[in-house]
Amino acid sequence: MTLDVLPVGQAARIIAVHWDSLVSEEARRLQALGLEEGASVKVSHRGVLGGADPIAITVGRMIVAVRRVHAAAMQVEAL
């Protein structure tokens, strides 16, 4: 499954990221924030307008807001 459909509160591990589907500048920013293969993540919140953007992702002790298109590029496995 992809990170954009992971239920709120469910812990997961990123198993693959489709970097080529992202703008290179955005991909570098996500990597710098720790959103890469092997990272443990959890969806904390979803946007209020239909659950679209942004999606708040917990990575370690930090919460990062990402767009749905970014989360859709990340394959995860539930923990």
From TrEMBL:
Protein name as catalogued: Ferrous iron transporter FeoA-like domain-containing protein
Entry keywords, A to Z: Iron
Pfam family, one: FeoA
Domain Ferrous iron transporter FeoA-like: 1-78
Classification via SMART domains: FeoA
Coiled coil: none
The keyword Iron appears for this protein: yes
InterPro entries, per database record: Fe-transptr_FeoA-like, FeoA, FeoA_core_dom, Transcriptional_repressor_C
Keyword hit for Amino-acid biosynthesis: no
Native species: Novosphingobium colocasiae
